[in-house]
Amino acid sequence: DIQMTQSPSSLSASVGDRVTITCRTSQGIRNDLGWYQQKPGKAPKRLIYAASTLQSGVPSRFSGSGSGTEFTLTISSLQPEDFATYYCLQQYSYPWTFGQGTKVEIK
Amino acid sequence: EVQLVESGGGLVQPGGSLRLSCAVSGFTVGSYAMSWVRQAPGKGLEWVSVFSVGGEITYYAGSVKGRFTMSSDNSRKTLYLEMNSLRAGDTAVYYCRRDYGDYWGQGTLVTVSS
User: Fold this and answer.
1) Which residues of A touch B62 (CB under 8 A)?
2) Is B104 in the A-facing interface, judged by CB distances under 8 Å?
3) Can you tell me the mean pLDDT for A1-25?
4) Are residues B95 and A49, on separate chains, in Cβ contact within 8 Å?
5) Buried b vs exposed e over A73-86: b needs ≥16 C-beta within 10 Å?
6) Distance between terminal CA atoms of chain B?
7) Do A62 and A84 meet the contact criterion of CB atoms below 8 Å apart?
8) Cβ contacts of A45 on chain B, cutoff 8 Å
9) How far is A98 from chain B (nearest CA, A)?
C-alpha cells in the first residue's frame, strides 16, 4: 500500500496569509493526487485533481503542484471561508489512500 | 442534477451486519466509478472501496476486505455497501461518492456498540 505523509497536521494563519500544505507518498504516483477541503459536518469537496488541475468552480487562490512523491497545495491569500481541514488523496493504485489531514485555524 | 443520498446507517452490535444504500439521480451507477469513504468521529477520511465503471471490478481497503461487499442495482439507481462482522472501529460516517465530477452524498452514521 502507498503511505501518505501530510504536513503539517495543523497550522494557524491569518486572513491574507499564504499557506502551503505538503503531501509525500511512499512511492511515485505520477500526478494521480487530489486535494480536498472539508468543513465540520460536511462532505469533503475536491479542490484540485491530477496534482495541479483546479476543480471547476474553485477559486484561483488555490493551486496544486508536484509529481512523483512530493505534492503541495497552496492558498495564495487565505480567506475566512478557507478555515477548514484539507486532505490529499492518491488514486494511483489500490487501495487509494488519504493523507492524515491538515487543520487550518484562525490565528 | 446529480445527487447522491445515503441511507441505512444506525446502531448495530459488534459482530452484526448492516447494509448501506446510496440512491443516485442524474446518472446511472454503472456508468461511473463509485466509491465509499468513511470518517470515524473526530478522525480523518478513510477510503473504503471502489466500484469500477460497469461494476465488474471492486477493490477494498485492507481494514474491510472480506467483511464488506459493494454492489449496485442499476435499474434502481442504487449503490450498496453490505457490512458484516462489524467492529467498534467501523463506527463512522459513511459517504458514497462519484469520482468523476466529485459528487458526494451527505453521509450516513454507522455506530457499532453494545
Assistant:
1) 1, 95
2) yes
3) 97
4) no
5) bbbeebeeebebbb
6) 40
7) no
8) 102, 104
9) 6
Q: HEC profile for chain A? A: CCCEEEECCEEEECCCCCEEEEEEECCCCCCCEEEEEECCCCCCEEEEECCCEECCCCCCCEEEEEECCEEEEEECCCCHHHCCEEEEEECCCCCCEECCCEEEEEC
Look at the block and give the residue holding cell 487501495: A95
Residue ranges of E strands in chain B: 3-7, 10-12, 18-25, 34-39, 45-51, 58-60, 68-73, 78-83, 92-98, 103-104, 108-112
Task: Provide the grid cell at B76.
Answer: 434502481
A67 φ/ψ angles, rounded to the nearest 5 degrees: -165, 165
Q: How many residues does chain A have?
A: 107
pLDDT tens per residue, range A32-79: 999 999 999 999 999 999 999 999 999 999 999 999 999 999 999 999
Q: Which cell is B2 given?
A: 446529480
Rounded to whole angstroms, how far apart are CA atoms B9 and B39? 13
Tens of pLDDT, residues B47-64? 999 988 877 789 999 999
Q: Which three cell numbers stand for residue B60?
A: 477494498
Q: Say yes or no for a CB contact (<8 Å) between A45 and B104.
A: yes
